[in-house]
Backbone:
């Protein structure tokens, strides 16, 4: 399926794209997962459906070995990409909006920062994010745009090794809200 790039920031290192996250041909796509790591709807459902059973198998192993209580909000783990075009899936758990004693923004920023850090640790150069927490988890899109762009710019400002960070929006209207509310200060 086609993806359309609407804009770039950070001197071309960040692209704003309309498309389906599962179609992205990048080193890693990010999953908007839940703490169970056992799949769900939205992005999570689409990734497991397109990627096949290998991803869930690795998630089960991560739960068993590292996160018996579940992956906390704001943290990220990596599995292979199964049958996806992407080589890896980085699973992160966004905050459920309004349920974190005022820490929503901090936790959402941590999702982006920790996912980028995991990509760097694995020497990956290209990564695609969906708009974490802005679906079932209810994070207002405009607020999420500000938080995610600030977190990405802060990370890329200090780490020079990622070539391309793609922000993928399913719908053009959602990408437009992002473009009206982002806080990137470099074109
Ligand atoms: N490609 C790109 N963006 C998408 C796609 C897609 N295929 N599908 C949905 N979106 P959500 P959350 C957009 O609900 O809010 C799951 O059940 C969507 O329009 O997937 O973090 C998990 O298991 C929205 O803007 O993630 C968790 O329980 C954004 O992706 C829970 O939902 C995120 O929507 C996580 O909720």
Residues:
């Amino acid at each position: 399926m086609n993806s359309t790039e609407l804009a770039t920031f950070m001197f071309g290192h960040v692209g704003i794209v309309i498309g389906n996250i599962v179609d992205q041909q990048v080193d890693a796509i990010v999953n908007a997962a839940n703490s169970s790591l056992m799949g769900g709807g939205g992005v999570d459902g689409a990734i497991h459906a397109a990627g096949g059973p290998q991803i869930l198998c690795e998630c089960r192993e991560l739960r068993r070995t590292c996160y018996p209580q579940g992956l906390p909000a704001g943290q990220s783990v990596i599995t292979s990409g199964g049958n996806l075009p992407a080589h890896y899936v980085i699973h992160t758990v966004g905050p459920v909006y309004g349920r974190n004693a005022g820490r929503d923004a901090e936790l959402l920023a941590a999702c982006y920062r920790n996912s980028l850090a995991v990509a760097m640790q694995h020497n990956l150069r290209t990564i695609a994010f969906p708009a974490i927490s802005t679906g079932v988890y209810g994070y207002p899109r405009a607020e999420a745009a500000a938080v995610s762009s600030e977190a990405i710019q802060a990370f890329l400002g200090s780490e020079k090794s990622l070539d391309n960070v793609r922000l993928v929006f399913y719908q053009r209207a959602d990408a437009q809200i992002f473009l009206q509310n982002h806080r990137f200060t470099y074109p």
The pocket of AR6 is lined by residues 20-22, 32-34, 40-44, 46, 94, 130-137, 168, 170, 174 (CB under 6 Å).
